[in-house]
C-alpha cells in the first residue's frame, strides 16, 4: 500500500523515499567521518611534534620514536600503534629506572621537567585519541541504528545534519587554535558533548513523532475496519432487500418483478442466439370458492403449498414465479415444446394428488395450465398473452388440464 504526502506535511511511505533517506544518512555519516578524520590528522601532527621534542633520550627510545613517526605519517591502525605505544612506554620506564648521567639531564634540571611534561602529554594524547575513537564509534552505531529503525523525517534529518556540521567546523577551528594539549582536550570533549546532546534531542523528537504517527495509524486502521464492517453490513442488508424485492412473501417463490427480469433475458437469448423456450401459465381452479368457503387463511395455505410443490418439481429444470393472485408462471428455458408439455401435465397431476384439509374436511385442489412456445419475432408480453389464452382454454375445457397453443 502506498501513502503519498501532501502539502500539509502528512506522512508518506514509499520505497524510493526510504532509499533516498538511507543515502542521506550515509552522506551524513561520511561527512562526520571526514570531519573526525581531520581532527585525527591534527592530533597526529601534534604527536609527530612531540616525538621530535622527546627524541634524544636514548638509542632504543629514538628508534621507537622513529617507528612511531613513520607510522603516524601514514595511515596507522590500532593494531600497529598499540605495540609501538607499549614498547615506547616500556622504554620510558627503563630510562626512568636506569638514568644515564652522560646522556640524561639531571632530575631537577629544566630539561628533565620538559621531558616529563612531554611524556605526560604523550600519555594524555593517547588517552584523548582513545576517547575520541570510542565516541566516534558510538556516534556511528547511533546513526546506523537511527537509519535502520526510525528512518527520520527529512526535516529533522536536515536539522541534525546542520547542527553536526556546525559543531564539527567549530571543533576544527578550535583544534587549530589550541595552544596546548589541555585546551585541545577540553575543546574536543566539549564539542563531542554538544554533538551528543543534538543526537539525544533528535532521538526524543523522533520518538515523539513516531509515537504520534503510530497512534494516528492505529486510529486510521480502526476506522477502516469499522468502515469495512459497516460496508459489509450494508451490502448484506442491500442483498437481503434485493432478495425480498424479488421474492413473493406468501409462497417464497420469485415474484412478478423477478419474472419480468428473467423473461427479458430469455427473450434476448431466443432473439439473438436462436434459443428454445416456452412459457406456461397456471392457475388454481375454483380458488375463489376455497376462499369463500374455508376462509382466506385456507386460501393462503393452498397457494403456499401449491407454490412449494411447483418449486420442488421444477428445481433445476425451469423457472417458476407467482405471477399474481392464484396464478403462477413457468419459464421453460432450453427445453423443446414436447418436453415442456409433458412436464406441465405432470405438474397438474401432482397438484391434484395433494391432500388438503380445511375445517377437518378434505379439500380437492386442482390446477389448469396453458403452454406456448417462444418465437424470435415476438416480444415476451405477446408470448405470455398467448399462454394466458391457452390457460383460459383449459378452464373452458373442464379445468385440471393443460392446453398448448
How would you sum up this structure, described in words?
- Helices cover 70% and strands 9% of the residues.
- The protein has 405 residues and is an alpha+beta fold.
- It folds into 2 domains: 15-219, no CATH class; 256-404, Alpha-Beta Plaits (2-Layer Sandwich), CATH 3.30.70.
- The longest helix has 65 residues, at 181-245.
- It is rod-shaped, with a radius of gyration of 50 Å.
- Residues 1-12, 100-104 and 148-152 have low confidence and may be disordered.
Number of strands: 7
Uncertain regions spanning at least 5 consecutive residues: 1-12, 100-104, 148-152
Average of pLDDT:
77
Overall outline: rod-shaped
Number of helices: 11
SSE layout and pairings?
Elements (H helix, E strand, L loop, with lengths): L14 H40 L4 H15 L4 H20 L12 H40 L4 H24 L3 H65 L10 H18 L3 E8 L2 H8 L1 H19 L4 E6 L2 E7 L3 H16 L3 E3 L2 E3 L3 E7 L6 H17 L5 E3 L1
Parallel strand pairs: 6-7
Antiparallel strand pairs: 1-3, 1-6, 2-3, 4-5
Defining traits:
five-stranded mixed sheet, two-stranded antiparallel sheet, rod-shaped, disordered N terminus, 7 strands, alpha+beta, about 400 residues, Alpha-Beta Plaits
Please outline what is shown here.
The protein is an alpha+beta fold and 405 residues long. It contains eleven helices and seven strands.
